[in-house]
Structure of VWA1 protein:
Amino acid sequence: NRLHATDVTSSSFRLLWPQLLSQDTGYYTLEYGPAAALASKRSQQLSGAHTSLVLSGLTPETTYQVALIPESNVHYFPPQTTRVTTLAEEISPVQVLISESGPHSFHVSWAPVLDSVATYQVLYGPLPGNSVKVLQVDGRHNSTVVEHLAPNTTYLVTVTAIYRSGKEKSLSAKACTQQGERGE
């Protein structure tokens, strides 16, 4: 139960630490910076009531040295330190595959599936045209079925990965529905 990081992304992480101080018994000084360039470290003060903080605006694929110094007017607490390495920059979906195409639906899948993605948005609409519909897909999934389509129509399908960091990356593909049965 010491200083540690969670929710690590390419540009941020959350620090958690045990409650050593209270609002009244002191404050914390937090110092952090790239381990390879400690001269550029930053520091900030936090009230003693804090037990977590999100650091953002960080550089991808960088190891940060973090020190939490409890400034108590009651007890001496040694500084708590940890090292956290940010993730690589988010990569966009590198392939979007259309399969199982029928007159009124088709299957969309994509790769890779990344832990850093919160949700995927699948936008689709007929070409040419500007009526676009959106499906939200949980970030753990890598495929969905698009339904209620018109037969014999070309659709533009765009898969957008929405990362936990708030960034978005997209990739598009075209899909054609099959000719409808006669009598439809």
Summary: The chain has a mean pLDDT of 91. The first strand starts at residue 4 and ends at 6. Residues 30 and 95 are 42 Å apart (CA to CA).
